[in-house]
Amino acid sequence: MEKTDLVFIPFPGTGHLAATLEIAKIMTLRDRRLSITIIIMKFPFLSNHTTITSDSDSIRFVTLPPVEIGQRIVGPASMFEHLKAHIPLVRDAVHEITCSGSARLGGFVLDLFCVSMIDVADEFGVPSYLFFTSGAAFLGFTFHLQFLHDNEGLDFDDFKDSDAELEVPSYANPVPGKVFPYVMFGKEGGNDEMLPILGRRFRQVKGIMVNTFIELESHAIQSFSDTTMPPVYPVGPLLNTQSEESAGGQQDANAIMSRGSFGGDQVKEIAHGLERSGHRFLWSLRQPPPTGKIGSPSDYENLEEVLPEGFLDRTANIGKVIGWAPQLAVLSHSAVGGFVSHCGWNSTLESIWYGVPVATWPLYSEQQLNAFQMVKDLGLAVEIKMDYYKDSDCVVSAQEIEIGLKKLMNINDKVRKKREEMKKISREVMIDGGSSHSFLGRFIEDMMANIPCK
Q1: What share of the chain is helix, strand, coil (3-state, %, to 5)?
Q2: pLDDT-derived band of residue 393, with 50, 70 and 90 as boundaries?
Q3: Is 90 exceeded by the pLDDT of residue 109?
Q4: Could you report how far apart the first and last alpha carbons of the chain are, in Å?
Q5: Relative to the CA of 267, which of 253, 282, 385, 436 has its CA 20 to 30 Å away?
Q6: How many helices (H) and strands (E) does the chain have?
């Protein structure tokens, strides 16, 4: 039987790579007609804790050599220039695949940031698909804002740091400008064109797989039904739960898991807030990259230099401050009763999978929108701060943090019940008969039907 090979091109960030490997494993196990090639790019400003490997004979990896771009560009423009610079290498890698004759090329499956590779797929005469590693509501936000920008002249800068609200079909409540992704703002650096460019390219693909499930984002997914968007297939939650550690017996869920990369002033406020809350805690504290730079957080060399004097001694019996932490292993532990989350989409799905209540404290990208959705639309989280941005001058006070932590640990029964229900559903949707299982099967059949005849 001739196999059909799909070429996956993920963005080389940890969360994007992990979700890509999960969907590749599930698809190749689901349908023996498929093989998958994952093309790995290396970016100089990203370090990675994730080494992606697979025992499957149907998944292979092609790692491209590093690429240097001539001019120094910062911010989102740097990321897109690096992606475009990989186009010749991707073209050569796919050419080798097609020349090997081991499988027919079925199409490209692209990360949301890698849509410039649509042009390469067109050169090979195969369809492109999108693998959207964020949620369906943000996908709808991207399409709607692109439409308003292109057709009604919407100026994104009118919403910067604003309480002004915008009706977005994929959200149940009007969305305030202060939770819009900060990278949308600023004509000088071309940031205001980033979202429209992505939205236009998204419309060129044959279908969009989204790492979500319809029971979680029913409003967002139903909002797509009357549009000219490509078909959307909710196929999540895609999580690598195989490596989770044992919960170690039943314990009272009265500890807080907090993580993040912050500068010195904010670290001291968090420390005071944690201490005053009176709750047990595990604090994964890391140092952010310099302001305005794209990069990965790093561990502080000396925690005592950044924490308030005496904090570690005073909290020795109730808390622990560490560097990098295996988040899934911590969330799966029965002692964890609350999670202070930056609301990256993977973290959001992980907290739902384990039924751990969340207090939102977003930092960048679309995390503010995710926080808004979790608190206002879905009623699955409480708020510490919803409109915080890591490069802003804002410092969240110890009092705000203390109040948020106490709300988190005394979360009302309605939210707790919703969490438990969604935890149960999230584990059912991926098995035979579940909604995401069915949508993935539909995607595979549609993809096979779209392969051009020889």
Answers
A1: 40, 15, 40
A2: confident
A3: yes
A4: 16
A5: 253
A6: 16, 15
